[in-house]
Amino acid sequence: MGQTLYRKIVESHTVFRVDEQHVALYADLHIMNEYTSPQAFAGLAEKNLPVRCPEKQMGIVDHVIPTHPVSIDQRTIVIDAAANQAANFTRNCRKHGIHLFDVKDREQGIEHVVAPEIGLIRPGMVVLCGDSHTTTYGALGALGFGIGTSEVEHVLATQTLIYRVARDMCIQVEGALQIGTTSKDLVLYIISKIGAQGARGFVVEYRGSAIGALSAEARMTLCNMTVEAGARGALIAPDDTTIDYISERIRDLPDDRIADAVEQWKRMKSDADAVFDVTHRFDANEVAPFVTWGTSPDQAIAITDRIPALSSEPLERRNELKALDYMGLDAGQALDGLVVDHVFIGSCTNARIEDLRAVADIVRGRSVAPSVRAMVVPGSGMVREQADREGIAQILIDAGFEWRQPGCSMCLAMNDDMLQPGQRCASTTNRNFEGRQGRGARTHLMSPAMAAAAALAGRIVDVRKEFDHV
Ligand SMILES: CC(C)[C@H](C(=O)O)[C@@H](O)C(=O)O
Ligand code: SF4
User: Fold this and answer.
1) pLDDT tens across 168-227, in order?
2) 170: part of which helix (H) or strand (E)?
3) Less crowded by CB within 10 Å, the N or C end of the chain?
4) Is 132 touching ligand 1 by the criterion CB < 6 Å?
């Protein structure tokens, strides 16, 4: 029987088999942030253990960093707890010889934006990080997934992880995304169909013509959010799009080694007779711009639909009522026309250059509604510089957006950027949990183009209508 790409990656990284379900899995790269690493370093110190492979670690300060639009060299963290966290992280990285993208680093940004853009992520790799959105790297054919703090310690000490092998799911998407819809709409659509636990215990391989047509960055959006369906990983087999993206960014291999690597990458795919435990099929033509109405990413509808009627199943009904109450909405209500206070364009889901280009295309020559506070937080220093070079930053500033420094920012209320209770936000992020963007704040997940349209209109609207103006 043939093997899936997922199984091949696991097999090629298995140091030894622990039992029927578990293997010791070798990690090619381990990424750390300031938030989930401190106890791991403390654990190492207690046991007097060195870091096994310092050159296979990378650190980034991203969750607690402020994003005020001051120049990078003036950037400082003023919140005491956050400043301590960052300083502690810097000390730990220095002590162990780990490369760190610190607060004042020109290439600092959100870990899942920076790692691919500097060419660190390549097909067939295993990439670990104490952060759930590590699934992003599947877009480049790498198996990435989040680990817990005690596992971070284990990886630092051994470069391996005791890993329970997942099951194989295939999500096949044929057809073509229509104008005004993006991979963000596609992933919200898929999660709304299979549910927030729909891929629990599985690694998802995306296949089909609609996936092949996506850019590498659009694939990152898709794989990033696959964890919101509970998946333990996402993969897209490498193709020319992947190879072009990576070859342009690799910094640490000479050209002849890249050529050899490309030959290997081309062979990385599931066998024709590989069997998946579960297969879902979707048609990209059916995807409209999607927006969440509730407090879980699967509570999403097409902008042309209405919030569904309450479920007849009591537990589900209770959850829906709780979500509606938190969001200040009713079953049967339309989202089209709903007034927003805030628009946030950022996060490791949608703050890459293509996302910002999509926003600029909508807002060029127009203005943010006076009632709205709108901010764009680029995913990294490199994205910010490129947007400056391309004139995108000026378009955004002229339209009335705040143009900030990179970081996780308002994706989660762990830094200075947060909403007030009751504020409603059109957001390009990945989680709409209660309190995610601030206590009592109401988050509606959507694509960058939809968020841009909401900023202009002051309310959630169908971006496809906006194309008359573009
Ligand atoms: C803080 C971190 C552990 C968390 C994650 O794992 O994803 C965060 O990045 C998030 O998006 O919720
Ligand atoms: S941008 Fe948001 S989702 Fe991504 S790592 Fe930061 S907090 Fe997590």
Assistant:
1) 999 999 999 999 999 999 999 999 999 999 999 999 999 999 999 999 999 999 999 999
2) strand 167-174
3) N
4) yes
Domain check: are 454 and 313 in the same one? yes
Cα of 315 vs centre of ligand 2, distance in Å, is 30
Q: How far apart are CA 311 and CA 291, in angstroms?
A: 19
How far apart, in whole angstroms, are the C-alpha atoms of residue 227 and residue 262?
A: 28
* Cross-strand partners of 25: 14, 161
Q: Is the CB of 344 under 6 A from ligand 1?
A: no
Q: String of b and e for 133-171 (b: at least 16 CB within 10 Å)? A: bbbbbbbbbbbbbbbebebbbbbbbbbbbebebbebbbb
Closest C-alpha among 325, 398, 378, 347 to residue 225: 347
Probe residue for ligand 1, chosen from 85, 131, 149 as the CB with the greatest number of ligand atoms within 8 Å: 131
Cα of 430 from ligand 2 centre, angstroms: 8
Rounded distance from Cα 12 to ligand 1 centre (Å) = 28
For residues 173 and 280, give the distance between their C-alpha atoms in angstroms, rounded to a whole number: 8
What contacts 86, CB < 8 A, 6 or more positions away? 34, 61, 64, 65, 77, 102, 103
Given 109, 130, 164, which residue is the final one in a domain? Answer: 164
Q: Is the CB of 133 under 6 A from ligand 1?
A: yes
| Domain coverage including residue 207 | 167-286
Q: Which two three-digit tokens encode residue 463?
A: 């971006």
At 30, which helix (H) or strand (E)? strand 29-33
d(CA 439, CA 417): 12
Instruction: Identify whether residues 335 and 412 lie together within a single domain.
Output: yes
Residue 228 Cα to ligand 1 middle (Å):
12
Residue 368 CA to ligand 2 centre (angstroms): 25
0.90 exceeded by pTM: yes
What does the pLDDT look like over 238-269, one tens digit per residue? 999 999 999 999 988 888 899 999 999 999 99
Task: Please state whether beta strands 22-26 and 160-164 pair in parallel, antiparallel, or not at all (unpaired).
Answer: antiparallel
In this model, does residue 292 exceed pLDDT 70?
yes
Distances (CA, A) of 7 to 20, 97, 200: 14, 33, 17
Atom 7, ligand 1: residue with shortest CA distance: 132
Q: How far apart, in whole angstroms, are the C-alpha atoms of residue 244 and residue 119?
A: 11
| DSSP structure string for 108-130 | -B-HHHHHHHTT---TT-EEEES
